[in-house]
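Example record

One chain of 98 residues, shown exactly as stored in the release files.
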Amino acid sequence: MEFGGDTEEALISRQEKTGKISEILLNKPQLTFGEMLIWEVFSILQNSRDSGMGPGPLNVQDILSLAFATIEEPFDLVKIIKSLDITWMKWYSEKHSG
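Predicted structure tokens for this chain:
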């Protein structure tokens, strides 16, 4: 996950080096198993994202392949992942504009 421009791994590494506990890590949301599964699927799909002038949306075929291989209700996962993707694309656009 990314927190304020840093990945969770970077924040943990900084915490280990400095001994100072990050407020961001202390306040990070606790995810349920289902939420962790969705985030993991989204993270895997991030690596297959097309790019050109900037990142493109996730490929629906990639989402479907992973959804069918992962859970019993793949179409629910597809809807959730597409929603996450739209949110991520909006966040990315705002972060990198102007």
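Notes: The mean pLDDT is 80.
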